[in-house]
Design a protein that fits this description.
Helix content: 10-25%
CATH topology of the largest domain: Immunoglobulin-like
Distance between the termini: 71 Å
Organism: Haloferax chudinovii
Shape: rod-shaped
Radius of gyration: 32 Å
Structural class: mainly beta
CATH superfamily of the largest domain: Immunoglobulins
Number of helices: 4
InterPro entries: Ig-like_fold, LEA_2, WHy-dom
Protein name: LEA type 2 family protein
Number of strands: 23
CATH architecture of the largest domain: Sandwich
Oligomer: single chain
CATH class of the largest domain: Mainly Beta
Largest sheet: 7 strands, mixed
Order of helices and strands: HEEEEEHEEEEEEEEEEHEEEHEEEEE
Strand content: over 45%
Amino acid sequence: MGLTSALFGGKLRVALVALVLVAAGVGGAYATGVIGAPSVDRVDNRFAGVNETATVIDTDLYVSNPNPLSANLSGLEVDYGVEMNGIRMATGEKEGVAVGRGTSAVPLRTTLENERIPEWWVSHIQNGEHTDLAVDANVTSETLGRTFEAPEISRSIDTDLLSAFNSTETREINAGSPVVSDPVLYVNETSAEWGESTSERTALELTFVVHNPKPYPVAVSELGYDISMNDVAVGAGTTNSGYVISPRSTETIEATTHIENDRLDEWWVTHLERDQTTDLRIDFYANLDAGGTTLRVPLDPLTYEKTFETDIFGNKASDAENGTATETTTEATEAAATESAATQTSTETATTTETAATTEAATATETSTDAPTTATATSSDGGTTTTDGGLL
């Protein structure tokens, strides 16, 4: 063996032995508790942008290093995932992370493909308008040969899109035609519930209790509908009713409408652009055969409007106040919006005028000349706005 080979071969062996000893020393130090294990203290998520095809999610993983020196012996690998009702919505990872002493924020950015939104929507509806959000994160140390998981982060996201459609308010249906007197019908009750949800579309089962005040039968041959969310058309069509309402009698009409799920990724963009707020609207019309005349009648009194909000990561308030987003482990809370109306009543006397605010509960009595009885309509405040603690 030459001098050069012996010299450099010896140095190489020394270097390898040194590396082995260092690794063994680190592993032994960890095993004996001299070196502490890094941990993930919390995970902060926030929506950072959205376009027609993708949603950007920014994440900060707060990694704690209890050691006096850098934990970046051979680099740390950090990864996380976001699931909604068991559906993986986003996944992020980062390698070669250097973590100094104390707690460090490791920034991550990942993309949620908007085409996943319809699958989540179906799960949300099938689960009773409920979503379980779960965020899991962990740190892997190559040097220590271990993975350290973050505390489980979960949230409940609930919406209530249809309950306000359930109403016993009586509403007049006017044809606005010279060939028949108004009202041509009364709708005394409405109700709605979700029907079958498939990957293609979501069904809404609607029920209308309709009274015919006329001395002749009125046929409802067709019921049409248009559904929009933030002005994005998500459903339209007609149902062949085939209902005939006998003179001065009441009939229950059932109809199935559909939301086309392939339109929901477009709606999702508007939902995020409006700070996770959506205006749902359903418009109706009917084809009526009354007194030998076929009429297309807009059912404006049945127009349904509902505003709902979501708070996916539970940080809308902190976003507005501080421009930051903090993930929490508590469930989303619902803040139900309440409305009240005040009617001012004035009484004048010779010496003083007093004004008192009262709560108005108005009822309007609608009388049909053709009906044997009087139909009573209760006043409505139009669309209902609620805060539901969270839709995607």
